[in-house]
Design a protein that fits this description.
Length: about 200
C-alpha cells in the first residue's frame, strides 16, 4: 500500500509500544514466541485507540501504526499456518479449535487486504482497523486460553518448533522488506538521519 514516509514522532510512538525486549524470543519456545507476537500487535491496537481518544492521531501516525500491525499480523498468521497449526494438529485431538483459528485468520486477512488498498482519510479506514483489533483480541484469547494450553500438555518439542518459527520469520521479513526487531532497534539508536523505514507491501 502506498504511503508517505512516517514522521520521526509517528515512527517512535508506534515502534516503541510495539517492540518486545531485544532478543527475548531467541531462547523461547514456540508458544512464548507467538505470545510475544500477540503482545506486540495488541500494543499497536492500544496505541491507535489511545492516540485517537486524545485526538493526537495524524494521518502519518495512523498509517504507520496500521501498516506495522498489518505486516506483523500477516507474518504471524503465516507462521502459525505453516508451522504451528500443523504441529498442533498432529498433537491434539481438538480439530474444531484449529479449524476455527484458521477461519479467524481468513477474516483478519480479508480486513488486512482491504486496509492495504486504503489511505488514512478514506471512509471506514479507522473502523476497519478497530474491527481488526477486535477480531485479533478474540483470536488471541482463544489461542492463549485454549489452544496453547492443550499444546503444552501434548508431547511436542516446542523449542524445536520455536527455532523453525524464528527461521521462517526471518525469511518472511526479508521477503516483505521488513527490518528485524534487532535491526529496528539499531536503526532507532543510531544517530544517523537516514533511519530504516518499514516497507509493508
Amino acid at each position: 500500500m502506498p504511503r508517505n514516509a512516517p514522521s520521526k514522532t509517528a515512527s517512535k510512538t508506534a515502534s516503541k509500544s510495539a517492540r518486545p525486549a531485544p532478543k527475548a524470543a531467541k531462547k523461547a519456545d514456540a508458544i512464548k514466541i507467538l505470545t510475544e507476537d500477540h503482545r506486540k500487535v495488541a500494543d499497536l491496537f492500544d496505541e491507535f485507540e489511545k492516540l485517537k481518544k486524545k485526538d493526537e492521531l495524524d494521518d502519518e501516525s495512523k498509517q504507520y501504526i496500521v501498516e506495522t500491525a498489518c505486516a506483523e499480523l500477516t507474518i504471524h498468521a503465516q507462521l502459525e499456518e505453516e508451522i504451528f497449526y500443523p504441529a498442533a494438529r498432529d498433537a491434539i485431538e481438538d480439530m474444531d479449535l484449529l479449524d476455527e483459528a484458521e477461519v479467524e485468520h481468513a477474516s483478519a486477512k480479508q480486513l488486512i487486504s482491504e486496509l492495504s488498498a486504503m489511505q488514512p482519510g478514506d471512509d471506514l479506514y479507522d473502523a476497519k482497523f478497530t474491527v481488526l483489533g477486535e477480531y485479533v483480541k478474540h483470536h488471541v484469547e482463544e489461542e492463549e486460553n485454549e489452544l496453547f494450553k492443550k499444546v503444552k500438555k501434548a508431547e511436542l518439542d516446542l523449542e524445536e518448533i520455536g527455532e523453525e518459527i524464528l527461521q521462517r520469520r526471518m525469511e518472511l521479513r526479508e521477503e516483505l522488506g521488513i527490518a528485524s526487531d534487532e535491526e529496528e532497534i539499531e536503526a532507532e539508536e543510531a544517530p544517523s538521519t537516514t533511519k530504516r523505514r518499514r516497507s509493508v507491501h
